[in-house]
């Protein structure tokens, strides 16, 4: 993950729109490195991010939540089948509710030990209202 984080931080992935890292055992150390790299804003165009089945727990998702404002175009995120507990779910929900991820509309958090209710509620709050006439 450190090589990928270095490539991201260097700006060589600035036009990347989709990143699938499913099942790579990233863990918290890798997620923290990834979060540090995206903090530079060098992945601002990313729209889809798949981090499912990577052994990420609260520490890793907290690091991501702290730097998530640099991913304003992120629409879809997959974090299912990790180890994210209630504290991590709350941190991600806080980032969403604060407007750090304004385009986010679809998050998959199933098969994590924590309740995804705060994340779902934060996304519902950001959904534009539907008007039927």
Please give a structural write-up.
With 133 residues, this protein is an alpha/beta fold. The chain has one domain (14-126): Leucine-rich repeat, LRR (right-handed beta-alpha superhelix), CATH 3.80.10. 40% of the residues lie in helices and 9% in strands. It contains 5 helices and 4 strands, in the order αβαβαβαβα. Strands 1-2-3-4 form a 4-stranded parallel sheet. Helix 2 links the parallel strand 1 and strand 2 (48-50). Helix 2 (27-38) runs parallel beside helix 3, helix 3 packs parallel to helix 4 and helix 4 (86-97) runs parallel beside helix 5 (117-126). The termini are far apart.
In short:
The chain is α/β, with parallel strands linked by helices. Helix content is 40%, strand content 9%.
Determine the mean pLDDT.
90
Number of helical segments?
5
Helical proportion, percent range: 25-40%
Q: Strand portion, in percent?
A: 5-15%
Q: Give the full name of the CATH homologous superfamily.
A: Ribonuclease Inhibitor
CATH topology: Leucine-rich repeat, LRR (right-handed beta-alpha superhelix)
Task: Spell the H/E element sequence.
Answer: HEHEHEHEH
Q: What is the approximate shape?
A: globular
Radius of gyration of CA atoms, rounded to a whole number: 14 Å
What's the multimeric state? single chain
What is the level-2 CATH architecture name? Alpha-Beta Horseshoe
Distance between the termini: 50 Å
Largest sheet: 4 strands, parallel
CATH class: Alpha Beta
Structural domain count:
1
Order of strands in the sheet with most strands: 1-2-3-4
